[in-house]
Amino acid sequence: MPDAGSAADGGPIRLRQPLTGTEQRDQRELRSSTSTLQDPTQQRALRDGAPAYQPGEFELFVQSLVAAPQRNERPSSERRGSERTGMDGRSLEDENLPAAIETSAIRRFGAELMTRVDDPGSVDYTPQVPPDYLIKSGDEIVVTLWGSVDADMRVVVDRSGRINIPRVGPVLVAGVRYAELPDVLRRRVGQVFRNFDLSVSLGQLRGVRVYVTGFVGRPGAYSVSSLSSILSSLLRAGGPSAAGSFRDITLLRGRQVVARYDLYDFLLRGDRSADTLVQPEDVIHVGAVGSQVAVIGSVNRPAIFELKPGETVQDVLDMAGGFTAVADRSRLAVERLQQRTGERIAEMPLPQGARQTLSHGDVLRAFSAVNSQLSVQQQNKRVRVEGEVVRPGEYVLPPNSSVGDALRVAGGLSPSAYVFGTEFSRESVRRTQQENYERALRDMETELARANTTQRTSNADEAAAQTARLASTARLVERLRAVKPTGRVVLQMDPGNSTLPDLTLEDGDRIYIPPRGTSVGVFGSVFNAGSYLWSDGRSISDYLRLAGGPTRGADRSSAFVVRANGSVVSALQDSGWFGGSRSLESLRAEAGDTIFVPEEQNKTTFIQSVKDWTQILYQFGLGAAALQTIRNN
C-alpha cells in the first residue's frame, strides 16, 4: 500500500515491501499487547480511525478520585449479595468496570469535540459563503446572464485577479467582497449591454495551505478550503493536546497577530465571532495549557477546566453548568495542590467563598443533599395507614411520632379491626432482610452443590437421577431468588390484644390492619390442602383432621404454623430441643393461621436440606407464597 507519510508531503509515492512471516507475527503481537494496555476509549478511537485520547497527569489523578468511590459506594454486604462470578473466578461486575469508568471519566472540558477527526477526502467544498469573503486568485466564479444577452459561464480568477467575460472583457475582482461581487459585475457588463439581469455564485473554491503549531495532537501543514476557519483547521490537527491550551490560540499572518481565539467562547456560549477565516500560509499556534482545576460531584457538567487569571470559584461553577437539582448549594470541598501533604481537604462555605480565586491543580467537589441520611429524630415521618381504620391514607407526622399517633391521625380503629394480624412494614428492615436472604440463598446453594459433588454414580440410572435432582435444585434456587422480603416486623402480642405496641415510627413505614380472619389454611403434605372456616376453641389437630390428616410421606415432626402476626411456631421448638412436653397439635388455632406440613425426604440425599431451609427462609418475611414456591418445586 502507499506510504501515507510521503504522499502527504507531496513527495513520490513509495510501495512498502511485503512483510515476512516473522515480521507479520511480531506486528500481530504488538497490536495485541497495545490493545490490551489501552483503555476502551483509546481502543474505540483506533477502530474509528481517530487519534487515541491521551489524558494528562492531572486528568488521571481526578479520574482516580471519581472512580474509587464508585467502586466502593455500596455497603460490602450489599455488594456481596449482588455479586456474580464468572468461570475464571472474577466478579462479573468487575468485567463491566472499564465501561463504567469510561462513562464516568472526568476529562478536560472540550476534549470530546477536539479528538474527532475529519476525513480529508470528505471536505465540503460547497459550504455557505459568508458575505465578507474576499475573492482571490484561484476562485471559480459562476456567472449567469439573461435578458438582452444569455450566457452561462464558469470563470477562474487568474493570477492578476481578473476574470474574462466574452464580449465584455476582463473584470478585476480580486479583493472584492462576495456580497459586492454582483454589483461590480453588473456595472462592468452594463457598459456593453442593456436590459439584462445576472446572478453570481462561487463554484470550486481554492485550497489554502496553513500551519498548525504548538501543543496540538498532530502539528504540521494542512491543505484546507479557503472557507476554513481557525476551528475547522484546528480540528484537522486533532485539537489541543493534553498539554495544549483551549484558551490561548493565536492566528499569525506573517509576523502580525490577526486574531486570538478562546475556544471556551464557542464551547460555553456558541460564540464564533472570533473564528476568523484562514488565508494561505497562515499559522495557527496553540499555547501551553494554563491553570487547570477540576469540578466533580453534584454539578451538571463535571470536568477539568482551564482558567484565566482572575477567574473565581463562581466562574468555574458557571462553566460546569451550576449545581444539579439535588446538590447541597451551601458548601464545597476544596482539595488544594499545595495542601495535599497537610490538611489536604478543606470546606468552603457558599456564597462567601464564591469570589475566591483558585490555584493550579485544585479540585472542587459538590455534595449531594439526598445521599446523606438525617437523624431519625430530626425527620418528619411519611407513614401509610391502611385497612380497618376510619380514614386510611398517607400521612406526614412530626419527629418522634409513634404507632399510636399514626392511628389517631387516621381516626382510630374500625369495629372489625383484627389487631393481632397487623402488618407493620419498615423499609430499613426490608433492606436488612434482603441482604440476609441473599446470604442465606448463597449458603444454601453452596451446601447443595457441595452435597452433589460428594455423590457418586455407578450406572446410567443413577446419573440420570442425579441430573434430575440438579435441575430441580436449580429451579428451586431461581424461584427463591424471585421472592423478595417484605420488610415486615413481627409484633409480639397476644391474639386478644386490642392495642398495638407504641413503636417509634420511621419514614416510609406502613401499617396495615386487616379485618378479623375467618379461615385457617392447611397446606403441604395433607390429603386435602385448603382453607377452612375458623371456629373459636379448635386446635391445630382439629384443622389437620379437616384436611384429611398428614399423608404417609409427611414429616410430622417438622410441621409449623405461621400466625397472623407473622410469628412462626414449629413442632421442633415445642417438643424437641429442651425437652418440652407440649405438642404443636394441641395448640389453639387462631384466625388467619397457616399450617404447613412438609414432606419426608430421603435423609441420605442432599435434597433433605431443602426442607430444613423452608423454615429459615420464612423468617425473612416472605409470606405463604414462598412456601408454595418451595412446595411446587
Descriptive report:
The protein is an alpha+beta fold and 633 residues long. The protein is elongated and about 125 Å long. Mean pLDDT is 78; it is low at 1-20, 29-50, 70-103, 117-126, 576-581, 603-609 and 629-633. Helices cover 30% and strands 22% of the residues. It contains 19 helices and 25 strands. α18 runs antiparallel to α19. It folds into 6 domains: 40-72 and 93-107, no CATH class; 140-202, wza like domain (wza like fold, 2-Layer Sandwich), CATH 3.30.1950.10; 207-288, Outer membrane lipoprotein wza fold like, CATH 3.10.560; 291-368, Outer membrane lipoprotein wza domain like (Outer membrane lipoprotein wza fold like); 379-513, no CATH class; 517-600, Outer membrane lipoprotein wza fold like, CATH 3.10.560.10. The strands form 6 sheets. A 5-stranded mixed β-sheet has the order 7-6-10-8-9, with helices on one face. Strands 12-11-15-13-14 form a 5-stranded mixed β-sheet, sandwiched between helices. Strands 17-16-20-18-19 form a 5-stranded mixed β-sheet. The longest helix has 27 residues, at 427-453.
What order do the helices and strands come in, and which of them pair?
Blueprint: H1 4-8, H2 21-37, H3 40-48, H4 57-72, H5 76-82, H6 92-95, H7 97-104, H8 111-114, E1 140-147, E2 151-156, E3 162-165, E4 169-172, H9 181-190, E5 196-202, E6 207-214, E7 220-225, H10 230-236, E8 244-253, E9 256-261, H11 263-269, E10 283-288, E11 291-297, E12 303-307, H12 313-319, E13 327-335, E14 345-349, E15 363-368, E16 381-387, E17 393-397, H13 403-409, E18 423-425, H14 427-453, H15 460-482, E19 488-489, E20 510-513, E21 519-524, E22 530-533, H16 540-546, E23 560-562, E24 568-570, H17 571-575, E25 594-597, H18 608-618, H19 624-632
Helix pairs in contact: 5-14, 14-15, 14-18, 18-19
